[in-house]
Structures are given as C-alpha cells and as structure tokens.
Amino acid sequence: MPNQPATFYDPAKTFDDNFDNGPFLDDSPAYENPGEPAYSFLDHKLYSPYGIAAGSLPTSKHVRGAFQRGFNVVCYKTQRSVPFKVNEFPNVVYLDVQGDLTLEKAAKPLVGQKTSDAPLEQLTITNSFGNPSRGPDFWVEDMKQAVAAQGKGQLLIASVVGTIQDGFSKEDYYQDFANAAGLAVSAGAPAVEINLSCPNVANEGVVCYTYDAVLSIAKKTKAKVGDIPIIAKVGYFAPDQQELLEKIVLDTSDYISAFSAINTIQAAVVDENGEQLLPGEGRLKSGVCGAAVKWAGLDMVKRLDALRKKHNLSFEIIGVGGVMTPADFQDYRAAGADVVQSVTAAMWNDQLAAEIKASL
Asked: Which is nearest to 150 in space by CA: 9, 227, 261, 47?
C-alpha cells in the first residue's frame, strides 16, 4: 500500500462508496494560483498544463476537489447515454511489475495483489470498472455543477463513450458516442473527450484500432457538438500500427482538436495460482496503469508530435501514463505534450499539482 491514504479515489472502498462519499480530502486550504494564466490549451488559458485524466473523478464533488488542489485540466469520469452498472468489486489491484511493462511482458499473465508496499512513484495497478454510469438523469445536472466549479485558468473536459444497446447496428453504436457528447455539451462542457480506448462488447474490441469506427465516431460527434473541441482518447499503437495511426491522425484532422495518449496497456491478471483474479465474465484482461506504462505514453506523445510536425497539423496532445512525479511531467512536456495528466498518482497524492506547479 502506498505510504499515504488515497484521497480522490480510494480503491479499498467500492465504486458506489467513492461515488457517494468521496473524495476523501482533508481540510487543507485551496491552492492559490498566483499571477495570470500563462499556458494555453484548446484556446483556454491555464495556470498550469497539468491535471487529472478520466477515471478517478466520478462526480462534481471530485472535480471541485481537484480544481481546489490546483489540478487545472481535469476530466469528469467517462459517462454514457444510458445507465450502466460498475463491474464487480474489487476494481483495482496492485501489480508487481519490474521496470517497463513492455508489450512482450503484457502478452503474459501478470500476478495481481490486494496490497502493495511499493512507494507511490513506483506504483503500478490494474483497473477494471467497465465505465459505469448512473445515466444522464444524474450526470447531466451534476456536470453542470462541475462546470460551475471551473475557475479562472482551469478547464473541465467531459469524457464520454458509446454503449451498445439491443438492436443497434455499428453505426447506431458510433452515433451513441455523439449522443453522449451532445448531452455533455448540453451540461455546458467546454470540451469533450471521446473515449476510443476502452474495450467494449463490440466486435472491434478497442475502438481506436478500427479505422472506420474512429472516422465515423469523429464525424458524428463533430456534427453533434459543433464548435466544441473534441479530444480523442487512444491506446498505445504498436510500431507495426504506425501506418494506421498516421492515417487516423490525417483523416480525422477536420474533426479532432486533440489526442490524449495513452489510456492503459491491456494484460491478463491472475492470482498466485494462475487463476483469473478479478471476478466476473470477461475480466481476465484489464487495463494496467501507473509507473510501468510511462514508456508507452511517452512514445505515443513523441510519435503524435512527429506526425503533427510532418503534416503541419494543429492538433494538440495530452500525455497520460505513469505520471507519478514532477520529473515525469517534465519528461512528457519535453516529448511534445501540450498538457499532461495523471490518474494513478493523483488518487493518493492530492498535492501533486502543487508540486508540479512549483517545478515550472
């Protein structure tokens, strides 16, 4: 277990407990941003180009807490156009990964543990929530409060995902991404992230690796949200997928204002006996995040930046993955990230934004 209690999201508690009773912050005074915002992202002025990616902020209370702690670019946890149940508890377990979780390592089962004594800067976890949502009857009104919590030099991003429903064709499924985005815009969201990087029960699996799906979702979402900027959240593209990545970047340039990379690296997680650790059907594989995936996030940022320069494109880049310390933040900025976000480290260290701001 990291040497400090979890604050924004406590994995020892159920999702519903975190949702209803979190965040678990102390009474520290709000972080004061001195001077004027000196950074810019999607035409929004920012006090710092750092924040929290989609995952650990499921309500406006969590978002407000993040803004008050100086996280200036934060994502409201991925939402759907319909209610959707959370996966069975536990949803987070610890992994003992030595060094980088390369694709070769991820191809073999990883042993998960319910506790860890690793220091936070070395922590690697897996998460398996299933993108739960209490549905727009709750989250649209709650997102309005999250938008209201956004202060000067801060930006709220609404993350959304499509949901396969009875009788849906593929195009219906792709349209549902747009429908969820439209609901977020109706709540006042100034930017929308379409989550193309989580497994769904569609034939294409992780959507970001299917060209036709990405293009259709991007077009439909742009038609729905108009001038609101769209961010595409993508997973790691292996070197042999570089041509696909380049084609997606080029052909979505009229619709996508920014790319966020990466989400997680997928791997099978088992117990000490080699049996599936997380209970429930379809949960052998889950997303690995934390220190061991930093290499992949940095690599994607460098490749996206190279494509941006090669084709003289104007999209912006959010770097995500293994950002545990101010030094990790600086590495991402040097690689070409316009904004950097964390999830894992920020769950435990609510002072990380202040630490990063002090390093600027």
From this structure: 47
pTM more than 0.85? yes
Q: Look at the block and give the residue holding tokens 């001077």.
A: 35
Q: Which residues contact 256 (CB under 8 A, 6 or more apart)?
A: 218, 230, 231, 232, 315
Concatenated DSSP letters for 151-169? -TT-EEEEEE-----TT--
How far is residue 233's CA from residue 306's CA, in Å, rounded to a whole number? 18
Inter-residue contact 145 to 313 (CB < 8 Å): no
Please check whether residue 100 is in contact with residue 292, taking contact to mean a CB–CB distance below 8 angstroms: yes
H helix runs in the chain, sequence order: 15-21, 60-68, 103-106, 136-149, 170-186, 211-225, 242-251, 294-310, 326-335, 344-348, 352-359
231: CB partners within 8 A, 6+ apart: 157, 191, 192, 193, 194, 256, 257, 258, 259, 260, 318
Q: Give me the residues of the chain with pLDDT under 50, please.
A: 201-204
Would you say 337 and 301 are in contact if contact means Cβ atoms under 8 Å apart?
A: yes
Q: Which of 75, 198, 208, 289 is catalytic?
A: 198
CA dist., res. 288 & res. 309, Å (int): 30
Respond yes or no: is residue 289 known to be catalytic: no
Tokens at 204, concatenated: 């294409």
Bridge pairing between strands 285-290 and 110-113: unpaired
Q: Give strand pairing partners of 288.
A: 126, 265
In this structure, the dihedral spanned by the alpha carbons of residues 235, 236, 240 and 246, taken in order and rounded to 10 degrees, is: 60
Over the stretch 240-286, which tens digit does the pLDDT of each residue have? 999 999 999 999 999 999 999 999 999 999 999 999 999 999 899 99
CB–CB of 66/52 below 8 Å?
Answer: yes
**Length of the chain counted residue by residue:** 360
- For residue 202, the model assigns a pLDDT of 47
